[in-house]
Amino acid sequence: MAASKATSVDDLSEKVRFLSQPEAYPDRPAKVQLVETHFSYVFLTDTQVYKLKKNERYPYLDLSTLEARLANCQEEDRLNRVLAPGVYLGIVPLYRTAKGVLSLRRSGTIIDYLVHMVRLADERNLEYRMYHGGLQPTDVTAAADWMAEFYQHTESKGTTDVEARRRQCTHTAEELLELVDDRRIYELRDRLIRWMDTNTRLLEQRMLVNAHGDLRPQHIYLGDQPLIIDRLEFDAQLRRLDPLEELAFLTLECDRLGQRWVGEHFLERYELLCDDISPPGLVPFYQASRALIWALLSANHLVTNPESRARWLERTRLYLDMGKISLRSMV
User: Fold this and answer.
1) CA-CA distance, 330 to 197, in Å (whole number)?
2) Is 38 exposed, middle or buried (0-12, 13-18, 19+ CB in 10 A)?
3) pLDDT, tens digit, for every residue of 147-158?
């Protein structure tokens, strides 16, 4: 088993080294920028993006085989064409030639696959614009309306299973307490469960849709034709959301970046265009729920990235702070 793992790591390292070279690409870009994410290595050329999935097995996602990585690439490409038309360009095979060298040109044996995308200008990115200032409501209205239109046409996926949400809340709190000892975790868990007990009927009436699944400012590109990338592909259940929950999470993330009004503008446009006014307390409930989940996701980095422990502990505590603030608006 150890030898197999070592071979897997060596194989991935070889692919990353090759794809980091400008001469690997047909258009011979001036340079290649490498960005590592949890599941992928992303290679950015002057005008293109190529995403290589890590050949690993996770508790909730198996990318250890060539067939699994192809299926994941295809699903990512298919899903994202809806909210990012013209950005996702298909799947590009990575070959090993008869001489044993790697190539993106059609020659030899396919050893992996890459998601191929157009590179979008940083200046269009919502998170970039937040950091660089000058953002106005008129700048984000088109993107907010694009999401509202998407929610009107995407598939319905039933209603909320309140008992499942209770179990998820309890499980999330238990996992987080194993990593961080903080009394706010107990408070969040208890208040959220009490709110669900009191508002079971309300939650059961909320219609769920096949949503984006990971709607954050870094995935939103502004303009006359907004583009929303990186729709979550590996678990359809995680995309099964109330639009108000997805937009509540976006607002939470905008708040974390110091510009809560941006997320609130998305919510306002959704309520207006979709005629779905949020009942009192529902959006704060969703935000507190998401804050607890993202506190856990941040705390997991305390184990997987111990060299960045201070950063991730601060992020964990920030989400707990935001969750507690959301509790104050729950009625």
Assistant:
1) 13
2) exposed
3) 999 999 999 999
Neighbours of 2 (CB within 10 A): 6
Phi/psi zone of residue 206: left (φ > 0), alpha (ψ -120 to 50 degrees), beta?
Answer: beta
Tell me: the pLDDT tens digits for 84-102? 999 999 999 999 999 999 9
Domains of the chain: 2-119 (3.30.200), 126-327 (3.90.1200.10)
CA distance 219 to 125: 7
For residue 54, the tally of other CB atoms under 10 A from its CB is 21
Q: Say how many CA atoms lie within 13 Å of 298 toward its Cβ.
A: 19
Q: Which of 327, 285, 253, 252 is nearest to 165 (CA)?
A: 285
Matching residue, tokens 């993006």: 49
pLDDT of residue 2: 34
Look at residue 3 in the predicted model and tell me its pLDDT.
33
Handedness of CA 301, 193, 289, 186 (dihedral sign): negative
66 near 33, Cβ under 8 Å? no
pLDDT band at 10 (very low <50, low <70, confident <90, very high): low
Q: Directed axis angle between helix 162-179 and helix 183-198, to 10°?
A: 180
Tokens 């995407």 correspond to 154
What are the angstrom distances between the C-alpha of 323 and each of 163, 250, 296? 21, 14, 12
Q: What is the mean pLDDT of residues 209-215?
A: 98
The verdict on pTM exceeding 0.70 is yes
Tokens matching residue 281: 């307390």
- Looking at the predicted structure, is the pLDDT value of residue 9 above 80? no
Instruction: Find the helix or strand (DSSP H, E) in which 290 lies.
Output: helix 282-304
